[in-house]
Every structure is written in C-alpha cells, then in structure tokens.
Amino acid sequence: MSYRQRVNEIDISPFVNNSNTETGAMVINASKGVYGLCQTETDVLNIFGKPSAEYPEVFEAIAFCRKSPIHVFAALHSDALYGGIDVSISGVAGFVSGRDISTFDFSAFPTLSHVFFAASPYTDDLTGKITYVSGKKFKLDLYKKLSTGNSYIATYNYSLIREKDGFGKSLYWEDVFNNNIYVTPKVNTSFVYTNYNLSGLVSTDFSGGSRGTSPTTGDYTTAWQNFQNKTKYPVKIFMDVNGNSISTINTIIQTYQPYAHGISTVPMGNTASQAKVLRQAGGLDSSNVSLYTNWAKIRDDYNDSFAWISDVGSIGGKYALMVDVYDAEAPAGIDETKGNKHGGQLNSWTYMESEQDYSDADLQLLDESQINPIVQDQVYGRMIYGNKTLQASQSSTSFVGTRRLYNYIINGITTQILRKQEFKINDVPHRNTARILVEDFLNPIAARGYLNDYYVVCDLNNNTPQSLNARQFVIDVYLQANPDSEFIVANLIFVGNNVQISTIVQGQ
Hints:
The chain is α+β, with helices and mostly antiparallel strands. 23% of the residues lie in helices and 23% in strands. The protein has helices at residues 41-48, 57-65, 173-176, 217-224, 246-255, 272-282, 312-320, 360-368, 400-417, 428-447, 465-469, 501-506; strands at residues 24-28, 35-38, 70-74, 84-88, 92-94, 112-118, 126-134, 137-146, 149-159, 183-187, 204-205, 237-239, 261-265, 289-293, 296-300, 305-309, 351-354, 371-377, 381-384, 451-457, 476-481. The longest helix is centred in the C-terminal third of the chain and has 20 residues, at 428-447.
C-alpha cells in the first residue's frame, strides 16, 4: 500500500448466533541450508537436506512446496560454522577449523589465493578437485561424498578476474557461482598471482563445518525478520511450524505485508483445555493469523522411520489451493468433489496416528477459543475441522475464508485501481472511472457467490469540500460476504402413516 493511501476497514457485519501468487514463507530447523526460494521438493532437499525425526520441520516445507513456491530460511545459532577448502600456490587443503563466513577476511590467511566455503554451515559432505588452467583461470570438479563413494555434482570453469571464454560466456567467479546452492567462493584481492602448482591433485574434502547449537526462539525471530523486506520476499502465507513465532509473524503481516495471512500451531503435548490456556495466555487478538492444533505421527519414507509433525505445511497448502477462488473458501472440512481440492482434507503424508482424539466437548471448547482442530475422520481421514482467525470478537473477519477474501479485494483495489489515481485531479470523470473499475473488479467475485452484495460510492457525497481541501480522494466500498456453513441444522420430522406429508409442508 502506498504511504499516500489509507484504507479504513469498517466491519459492520457481526454474525448474531489475484493479484499476487500464493507464495509461502517458513522458518525451519534443518541439517543444512540458510535460505532458498523453493519451487519443488528437490529444491528443499538440495538446499536444506533430508527431513527426519531430528529435523521434522523440513517435512513442512516439502508439503507446502508441492502446492506453491515458498521462501524458506533456516534458523541458525551464532556458533554455526562453515566448512570448506583453501587454495594456495602449492595446493589445496580443507579448513583446519570451521569459520564464520560473515566475518572472514584474508588478513589472517595472506598466503591463500582463494577459498571455497560450503554454501551453508553443516557437517561437510562435499569434496572438490581444483585444476589450474592458465593465467587466472581454474576448474572446480565438485562431488558429494556418500558412504559408497563420491557422486558427481558439476564442473565449474572460473576465473579470478573479469574475463570470458571463447563463446562469450563470463568466467568471472562471482558470475559463475552466483546463488550457487553448494559453494560460496571468496577471493584474496591482495594476493600476488604466479603460476599455481596444482596439477595432478586429487579431490580434497571440505572440512570444519558444523550446524552448531540447536536454534533458540530468538534465532527463529532473527530469521523471520528477513520478511520485513516485502519487496525482496513478497509473501501470501506465513507458516509458523512449531508454534513459537505467532506474535512475530502477526507483527510482520500488520507492519510490512498487510495482505498476507499467518498460520501457527499449538505446540505438541497439549490437550484441548491446555491449548485454550495457551491461547488465553498469548492474548493475541488478530484476524491476520489462525491457530491450529493436533500433531501427527507420519511415516518417514526418506529414512524408513517415523516422525511427528504439526502439519502446518499441509494446512498452508490447502490455503494455496484457493488461488482460483479469490482465497474466499474455507480451508476446512471435506474437499469439494469438483476436482479443485478446496477444503480441509490433508493427505501430504501417510498418517500413522494423531496426537489427540478430541471429544465433541473438546471441539466446542477449541472453537470457542478460536483454535482450529485437526481431526481424524473415520471416513475422510485427517482433516482440518475449524475455520477461525484469532480475532476475539465475532464478525465476518473471524473466519479465514472471508478474511483472506477481503485481503484479496483490498490488495486488488489499492494496487490495480487506486494507485492510478495518485496525483490525479479529483473530478467527476476520475471518480466515475474509479467507481466503475472497482465495480468491475467485484462483479466476478459476487457472481461466484462469495459476496452477497456490494456497493461503491465515489462522488460528492464522500468527496466533500473538506476532503478535497485535504487533497484526499475518498472511495467507500461496502462489502457483504457470503458466510460459510459453520453449523448444520437437520430437522427430521417424523410423520404418521395416516397423514400426507404434502399437506403438512403446504400448510407451513
């Protein structure tokens, strides 16, 4: 939203009894990796390593990535160290001890020509063969170490200076290794170059890398703060996969990315009543985030084992599938049968068991606490069974589908329509144009049934002399959302055989 615009949300619809992609965001604990925009399961595995019982949060990134792209940061503690190899005139050697890549310089290593860091801190599994070609040109053959030998990754022809090969392709090391997911080179610009004695060398193992201490909540917060940069990391769905960052992502949404929605979870080991206590202790009152509960034990096909997960990544995937319906439908309940998978059935993994088996009383308690339970339905399997935001007072924005529909509408109107009015004359033609464009934008949404009614006012009634004098262009957009069916009422009327049902129905 431009700083020259102000949108006031006026909610007068309490119940008595696009324009951007569905890109996700997640901070995880992983065996490797720092950051990646992952668009496939392979991206997640290559950058962050395999999921496991020790690193279950990687499962969450994979589940969402199967539905939509996702920005993933790994939470790192300050004692994490990078491994790598050093290149000097006389040879190549692994790091004697791990290094902090952010503070490294060559002042303590003046005899080194250049070094290769692993792209992230982790227990090293790379090996590389450096070949000196001529001048300032080299070749790196990179392999991954396996228990059965080395697996070839790629060959990189690079130069320490700006030059190209015979086909016009840049050999400059910064270009060759730009955003490389395996290695990050550093070059000693003070080094005096001579011919290198690197012929006949065998591969040298990267060494010194360590993931360090398990990340703390503060480390997660540090990683989440990257998403304050909304231009670099535009996000639609924030996912807090272990339940330690819900307030952080709520602040990021409200301050930096106002059209996004956040998903969090009650930490493992809490009953329905304990979840209510945690919810109340958190004190969060926001329609920008939703809270879910009931962890799952899944079959871990990557390691032939099992793991417990919150399933927030799968929940986020159900949100992402709403891209073709203006984000308006509830990611809950049984999936639609039309093939679009709109609903709340979760099938990302083979589910072995759920942590909790909620009673009807538990489900009512969670609903009243604005917590969305996940249940194991005997017919339909694992399923989201709630559609609440964490807004304490009940209104249209208390429900996920309506809140996200309003976000879609606000984003579309402000970025596609009202941005064009900035610095333009506030006259009748411009007001009519804005009104018509907003109506045209809302028409298909209403036609699909997601809005019961709407009305747009942009004339002298709201663009008064006072607003004109303040250089304001005012447009009022009244929205009446079509509510979801949260409760089903089935009236079974038993009629005796001596009475015709038609006469009873006609008499009502």
